[in-house]
Amino acid sequence: MKRKMIYTGVAIGAIGCCAMLGVGIHSALGTNVAAQTDRDDAIEITATQTATVPTATCTSATKKTTRATVKAATTIKQTTHETAAATTQTTTETTTAETEASTIEANFTPTQNPDIPNLTVSTISVSCLKLTWDGEDGRNYKIDVSTYAPYTENITFLEKANDTWYLTGLRENSEYEISVTPLLNDGETENDVCVTPATVLGKTEQVNVIQTYQTEEGWTNCFTGERASGLTAMPSSGAIAGSVKDPITDTTIRRNEYGDYCVAMGLWYGVVGDRFLIELENGTQFTVSICDSKGWASDADGDGILDGRFHWFGGTGNGKSVVEFIYNSDKELPSCVAYSGSWGYYNWNGLDLGANISSVKKIDYGNTITY
Fold first, then answer.
1. CA pair distance 170, 283, nearest whole angstrom
2. Model's pTM, two decimal places?
3. Distance, CA of 107 to CA of 194 (rounded, Å)
4. Domain boundaries, position 137
5. Were both Cys, which of 12, 120, 193, 355 would link to 281 (CB 3.0–4.6 Å)?
6. What does the pLDDT look like over 82-98, one tens digit per residue?
7. Terminal CA-to-CA distance of the chain, rounded, Å?
8. Rounded distance between C-alpha atoms, residue 301 and residue 307, angstroms
9. CA geometry: angle at 185 spanning 181 and 186, to 5°?
10. In a domain, 171, yes or no
11. CA 47 from centre of chain
12. What are phi and psi of 299, to 5 degrees?
């Protein structure tokens, strides 16, 4: 039997930029409980889905249609599941190692709630889903998430607009069953509001791995930065064209239409336009696209030859800056990053960069997305 983590917690709103590791999102979410279960292989689903399902049996006597900011009490949990078939796993260069997908889709029965119209989930990246619905003015909602993906303690909910929420800290090629339930206000009963959960199924991006690179030992979460305004010549200027300041993490890092963070990396890894899946030792995953080259960078192995694997952070023999984020402008640089010189000490709304890099993998390009 494979180990399955069951996670329960309460979501918090958008975290300030300087949420220190171990003090911010992680400590606020709750505790883990271990259980045992099997995991089956996932079945592919479409990147964007809107639930088209039977209407719930309950109907509300009073219903408002005004959109407004929705304050949610959020519970992250995993459902138990027994399966008679053993999970068959195959490790190849064209699949992401250690990814174990669930059988949620096979068992998923979506439901609809008349008081949660237009509930939709769409894929943003390997670690993020976008959840939208038409919220009612003054109404709170409970959100439940079920998954068989690992690292559920990393899941974070972010309210970004009156009709837009993001689920971050997710895992590549994994399914998440999301339920949204209206909460009763004072004086209301279930005759006033339908409290049947509305459910949708989302799946994070699945990548195709082209090449896996050796693991760089030592301090590697030295995520330094470079201003986008300095990239005025081709091919770098073309690579960041169309990119935007990330609307999800509040890092001010630029992000492109594929959900990738814009970065500079050394020629050891590739050239401008190459795309990578980065995984950290704490389970954080994200994709990047090289938009500027660090050239041959530092002499990584001390043989007197510059090999382009990293440049030293804090002097020779200290940190190894493998990934250098391209950020919007100095004026918008978070104060904690301006002080420390790195994004790597902090948890950025579910993008927890507080651990060293465990793997770098070159990947194919996927579909474009809308934030």
1. 9
2. 0.78
3. 24
4. 2-203
5. 355
6. 333 333 333 333 344 34
7. 38
8. 8
9. 150
10. yes
11. 15
12. -80, 95
